[in-house]
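Entry 14. Ran structure prediction on the chain below.
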Amino acid sequence: MGESDFWVIISGRSGRTAYLEKNNSSFSKCEVLSGRMGKKTMTDGAARLTRDSATSTGHALSAADWLDTHFLAGQCEYETMLRAAGFQAGWCVLDAGCGGGSFLPLLSELLGENGRINAVDLAPENVSQVERIVESGRLQCPVSVREGDVTALSFDDGQFDGVWSANVTQYLPDAELDAMLAETRRVLKPGGLLAVKDTEDCAFRLHPIPSLLLWRLFDALAGRGEMTVIGGLRALHLSHFVREAGFVHVRHKVTYIERQTPLRPVEEAFIAGLVEWLAQEAESLVMPASEMVYIRACCDPSHPLYMLRQPGLYWREANVLLTGYKAA
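Output, structure tokens:
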């Protein structure tokens, strides 16, 4: 199996969105990184990426293709956070909410051939992609994957040396977050490590979109109950939840991902998809007409305000890495 068989960045059925033409092409990671995508084709790809960004479970921005693109756009910082988490060679680790498996190659490298990973995800299509990665033989320790709910884990008490969970807590209301933390504590060995990474959207920036426009959009989405936004604004409070769950020596560190022009093709693909998602969500809200005209222009490759054409384009994302231990 080749790399492009499972590291798919732009995929999905051909279709039409509000502003973009139909296109039947599909692009692999290799094609994105090598730059063989023009601006208009990039936008067509962003439409497919955005349209297919939710999983069959209904969680927005959690399908494997979207997660892989996001991961590649911030790979250096994401891998630095995983390396800093504290996982040790030879450990048995649970990847709780593994998505499409973006972190598995590095996690398996850190654990080495004597380590082991059990991965779970709620979406069956994400589990299928991880199975293809495992079958490729590229991972450096044994990995098993199954469908599973992080709030009701099907593992024995004290089974794991560590738990890794990336970009999962933002989808969980407070009560479900409490249940997840109780379950991770249950399956950890005494002294076991919990490492949670998630976005902190208070620091989100996508220049030149005006900050107040973004905040009005986020406020409207949160008011509608969009958990992706609500949870994304809670990351700095995670340490409180983790302490309340009984973990000790709780620490957090914030890492910023910043990108500005000139961008790598995969960064353009991610930003184009992100802007498209914001525009689609805005269409379902009551927003001022002038702001909707601007948001639509940001997605239109024929418009002077098209986002990927802006020389001062800047994207910033904050991520919180939180660690805690089950008392020995």
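The first strand starts at residue 8 and ends at 10. Will compare against last week's run tomorrow.
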